[in-house]
Design goal:
Blueprint: H1 2-18, E1 27-34, E2 40-47, E3 52-58, E4 61-68, E5 71-73, E6 83-98, E7 106-120, E8 132-139, E9 143-150, E10 158-164, E11 167-170, E12 174-178, E13 192-194, E14 201-202, E15 206-210, E16 215-221, E17 229-235, E18 238-243, E19 252-255, E20 258-259, E21 262-268, H2 271-276, H3 279-282, E22 298-303, H4 305-308, H5 324-336, E23 341-344, H6 373-382, E24 386-392, H7 397-413, E25 418-422, E26 430-433, E27 439-442, H8 447-462, E28 466-469, E29 485-488, H9 495-498, H10 508-512, H11 543-552, E30 557-559, H12 564-569, H13 571-579, E31 584-593, E32 597-604, E33 615-620, E34 626-631, E35 639-648, E36 661-668, E37 673-678, E38 683-693
Parallel strand pairs: 22-23, 22-30, 23-24, 24-25, 25-28, 28-29
Antiparallel strand pairs: 1-2, 2-3, 3-4, 4-11, 5-10, 6-7, 7-8, 8-9, 9-20, 9-21, 10-19, 11-18, 12-13, 12-15, 14-17, 15-16, 16-21, 17-18, 26-27, 31-32, 32-33, 33-38, 34-37, 35-36, 35-38
Helix pairs in contact: 5-6, 7-8
Length: about 700
């Protein structure tokens, strides 16, 4: 196998040197590197004016055409032309590492790396030496990550970046799935399905399927102390990086030496292949927190959905939801059903009045007068349940930071191990107050907020608290480095089904699976078994689909989002939700087409009484009825499995009645197949309980 990989790599490098004869007169290939098996290869070019570019081939064919590299600054000339190659080096890494929790227990990390040093032929300032810039490429068989590294140099001590000149020139026509970047509602948009040349300015991940079936996801990894990257289409299928703005001119200000986040491209033959990649996780630094066994993945219920239905309020008064009596009711339900956590929103002072985008009245250590939070926390503990905390900032981030240490200490004293943070404010309206009293407005995904989120995560880790961020900065794999950053929102979640129109359409979850979910865990808040939103309006889902969401849309903190009384009406659904784990040792995408359907199989990390690992399958569809067949090749050979199948009933249809659900049990083995009929807005969920080996 290794000899074959070497041959592939040599062949890929040979292709690189002749892949673009049309550019031979104007661009010179100065460095190349291929992936371990030669599937992908990168070349670095300098044109006749010293402009650097990179290009990527896949199986010998250009998949990313020559694309620019460089920077614009606010205080000195750009770095974009007049470069020469000053040096290059390569290395290979082949290792595995283990996640403390996640979708896979072990991750393979095998890449070839190329480091290129570029040096300007002439300095922009005569008295100083020419500037230098490193570009580092890590090439895997399923993707490429590259980043810039600014070395320590006298002419660039403080780097003030106006924008990047980085490009992604996708070679070929096809389809794209994307949401707009830089708009008021942050990441909470329905995905647009267009041709790539109709994309405007998009958030990442941006997912593209080329005409030949090749799938591409463009994103970033290790977003630390830097602005998030949007993608703006320049012309045709050429996209340019655009950094989220900052309040003080430069989008990024850093002291050299430093490295940017990784710009990432995943390539696969199928949508499922994109999901199976570990590129972004691998490009992040290893765990810096040490032993994090104090965090246990868990499910939780909470005082939340009732407020989105307008049955209760976050604010105090006659309809206040977070009262002692109401929270105890949720605790009793959680304890009776083996649910470890209870989320309490609206528990603290500050919700009265206009808090949206104006969170300066919040007190994160003072409960409302009608909630005995210490008493409730003690009551929960006596029942084997813990409180899930909630820190809504209303966009008043400096105000939150002024209380952060005391707020986390207060939560720790109550035994709170997970806190859901919130940043409800329109994009570009996060309130920042500098030490001198200057008030500024920042973007949710700018450099200042990237710093803020890591401050919260690291301070929480000191107190053994995990963070679930809502209205967040996007996920870029930092859960590897900081394993207490367990989940985020960052997309349209279930709450949109509680509100007015438009609700999430039936294809929403099958789209999320291969777009937003490529970045990391999402707190989607599934499990609305009533299938009803505000005013008794239907949501575009069947009951079986609500069960499937626990498998398809991954989070290590999964909510039973509906009201306790609704679960009592659907005991079969509750049985599956209680059983489905939130921590996995393996994940397989069995089938999927973006926005049409997706079927996932996940292996429970825990062992059952028979010493076997159970598997769970979740399948979600769109507004078209379809029948999917899945092969059970992933099961252990020689072992009986009992399949508990929850599927759409013959008359299930979200337009009329999504509740009919057929529950059946059968014995299955490795190599068998399951037939899963999906209704309109439908789904299927399967629990495969491993028995004793034969």
């Amino acid at each position: 196998m290794r000899m074959m990989a070497r041959l592939w790599a040599l062949a890929a490098l040979a292709v690189l040197l002749v892949a673009v004869p049309a550019l031979a007169e104007t661009a010179k290939v100065v460095a190349t590197v291929a992936s371990p098996a030669g599937t992908l290869a990168v070349r670095v070019e300098l044109d006749g004016e010293g402009r650097p570019a990179y290009a990527i081939t896949r199986r010998g064919t250009d998949i990313v055409a020559p694309s620019r590299l460089g920077f614009l600054f606010t205080d000195q000339p750009k770095m974009e032309r007049g470069f020469a190659l000053a040096g290059q080096s390569t290395r290979t890494v082949d290792e595995t590492w283990e996640q403390p929790w996640g979708e896979w227990r072990t991750i393979a990390n095998h890449f070839n790396e190329l480091r290129v040093r570029l040096k300007e032929k002439a300095a922009p300032v005569r008295e100083l030496p020419a500037r230098e810039l490193d570009v580092v490429f890590r090439v895997y068989d399923d993707g490429v990550g590259f980043r810039y590294e600014f070395p320590d140099q006298p002419q660039l001590k403080t780097v003030r970046i106006a924008d990047e000149l980085t490009e992604f020139a996708v070679a070929g026509k096809g389809e794209a799935w994307w949401i707009p970047g830089g708009e008021w509602n942050r990441y909470e948009y329905l995905y647009q399905h267009t041709s790539p040349d109709a994309v405007g300015q998009a958030h990442t991940p941006l997912t593209i399927r080329l005409a030949d079936g090749t799938h591409i996801a463009v994103h970033e990894a290790a977003l630390v102390d830097y602005s998030a990257m949007w993608l703006r289409r320049v012309e045709g299928t050429r996209f340019k990086a655009v950094l989220a703005p900052g309040a003080q001119g430069a989008k990024v200000v850093r002291a050299a030496p430093f490295a940017t986040p990784w710009r990432t491209l995943i390539f696969a033959d199928s949508a499922g292949g994109l999901y199976q990649s570990h590129l972004e996780l691998n490009l992040n630094e290893p765990n810096t927190l040490g032993d994090v066994s104090w965090f246990t993945p868990q499910k939780f219920v909470g005082v939340w959905w009732e407020m989105h239905l307008d049955r209760s309020t976050w604010s105090t008064g006659r309809k206040h939801g977070a009262t002692t009596a109401n929270v105890r009711r949720y605790i009793d339900f959680a304890a009776a059903n083996g649910i470890p956590g209870v989320l309490v929103e609206g528990w603290n002072v500050g919700w009265d009045g206009q808090w949206f985008g104006n969170g300066n009245d919040f007190d994160f250590k003072k409960p409302t007068p009608d909630l005995d939070l210490p008493g409730v926390a003690a009551y929960a503990k006596s029942k084997g349940v813990s409180i899930v905390g909630h820190h809504e900032t209303g966009g008043g981030v400096s105000h939150y930071e002024s209380q952060l240490g005391a707020a986390l200490d207060y939560a720790q004293g109550l035994g709170i191990g997970v806190i859901k943070t919130g940043y409800v404010a329109d994009a570009g309206q996060v309130e920042r107050v500098d030490p001198n009293g200057t008030q500024l407005r920042e973007w949710h995904d700018g450099q200042w907020m990237a710093r803020h989120h890591l401050l919260v995560v690291t301070e929480a880790a000191k107190r053994h608290i995990a963070i679930d961020s809502h209205e967040p900065i996007k996920d870029t794999g930092l859960r590897r480095t900081y394993p207490n950053w367990v989940a985020r929102e960052g997309a349209r979640g279930m709450e949109y089904n509680a509100w007015g129109e438009p609700k999430n359409p039936p294809n929403h979850e099958a789209t999320l699976a291969f777009t937003r979910m490529l970045s990391g865990p999402m707190d989607f808040t599934p499990g609305i078994v009533s299938l009803r939103g505000k005013g008794d309006t239907p949501i575009a889902s069947t009951l079986a689909k609500q069960l499937a969401l626990y498998v398809v849309l991954y989070s290590p903190v999964q909510m039973l989002a509906d009201l306790p009384e609704n679960y009592a009406k659907y005991p079969d659904a509750l049985a599956f939700i209680k059983a489905v784990p939130v921590d996995w040792s393996d994940t397989r995408v069995l089938n999927g087409e973006i926005g049409q359907y997706a079927t996932f199989a996940r292996k429970d990390r825990a062992h059952n009484a028979n010493g076997g690992d159970d598997w769970y399958i979740g399948s979600v569809g769109d507004d078209q009825p379809r029948t999917l067949t899945v092969a059970l090749d992933f099961l252990d050979a020689g072992r009986d499995y009992t399949a508990h199948i929850y599927r759409d009933g013959p008359n299930a249809d979200w337009h009329t009645d999504g509740h009919p659900m057929t529950v059946e049990n059968r014995t299955v083995h490795q190599g068998d197949t399951l037939t899963l009929p999906l209704a309109r807005g439908g789904g299927a969920a399967v629990q495969l309980v491993a028995g004793k080996g034969r």
